[in-house]
Amino acid sequence: MPERDRPSFTLQLSQNKYLAPADDRMDVVLTVRVGDAAATAVAPPPAAELLLVDCSSSMDWPPSKIEAARHACRAAIGSLRDGVLFGVVECTGHARLVYPAAPPLAVAGERTRHEAKAAASGLIAGGGTAMSTWLDLALEVFDRTPVAIRHAVLLTDGKNESDRAGALDAALDRCQGRFACDARGIGDDWEPRDLQRIASVLRGSADAVLEDADLAGDFRRLVERAMGRTVPDLRLRMTTMSYSRLRFVKQVFPTEVDLTPQCRTEGPVLELPTGAWGDELREYHLCLDVEPAELTRYEDRLLGTVTLFEGADDAVGERLAVVGYLTDDLALSSVPDDNVARVTGQADLSRAVQAGWDAFDRGDRAGAARDWGTAFRLATELGNAENVKRLGRLIDVRDDGVVTFKEGLRPRDVFSALLGSTMSTYTGEARTGETEPAAAVPPEGGGAPRECVQCGHKARPTAKRCGHCGEPFETGAPS
Prior knowledge:
Four Helix Bundle (Hemerythrin (Met), subunit A), seven-stranded mixed beta sheet, Rossmann fold, 23 strands, Immunoglobulin-like
């Protein structure tokens, strides 16, 4: 394909290369951008879409839930472009393809969309909840569908009580890497961690439906986003050295997902499939264990490399180096890279929300208030408006720091905050793409690191806020 007819691929690396003798890890943020994916596609690639709709008996009360599900299906079907393969699955204690009546999937067109909407309108609530059977049927249908981009939307309102122990995890193992799935919970009696696991393994998002009437718009957006993905697969290929090894790799934007178990390892080479892409940006946190005794002081040492691949073995962009530089100068090694500080701050926020959920679930309201108050402060400091909004449905934080619960708190509001805690923010203000980052290098002409008046942590001379506690620095040039 001529270069002008290809999407643009950008891989950027952000780190503070300086290591103190006591440091045993190197943290790196990888920013991946894809642009012009839709504009450069001669024709949209073949795609398949499945709607997995919980029709268990609990969906019948209140009746607005099953009606919202029917309406959302019709909205999603109506947004399918011509030629997309699609189907609707009735999900209870087992799974049944209701449109089309049997594989293969239908081809979206005026007639099939009309028929599928009629089938969705006939969905009736009754039965149990066994999510493993839903995913296994999706896998069976997708395996008979010869397309590279395969996506499902899963809706549930209940706990996975009809499944045998371990069945959901086994099904997720079978489905991993075979299709993507976004999961949604409706009502107030479902298990958010089930949806979190599904979305994490199947490279999707998980969220709570706050109002039944919002479901149709959400379904439509999920399907349209999936159809906008025109690059079937991108892979991050990472190498390590004899004195470095992978500790973990996580997607940290737009949502936080631990992808370490999904890496394919062959000696010092690790490869991470990242799934299908449209015009979008994602960030990854790569952490390497390092043996500082194997490094020479005051010299750049290669700790690893990262390359972006499209398709079978087509490198797109340059191979980037992860560098380590052993130094006794704490003014260099103690300064956090802005991007690394941001993603570690988001991880702290997520842990605080999860801890608050655990406390709330066991009836410890004082502990929940404390942890959610911490999460609210972190979200505010990070500029994570989405998490501030979601936590704001649970608590009020007074000027003196006292945290009180909102009146009429609904389980779905708590679920929304829990699932939203993995949704990170990307400000674009931190500098990226530098293997020798500005975070650790004084500007030309000198300049001392800034010291935070709140916690004493040092930051780069040009930093706008402390990377450790988030306290803003005074405007103007540092002294």
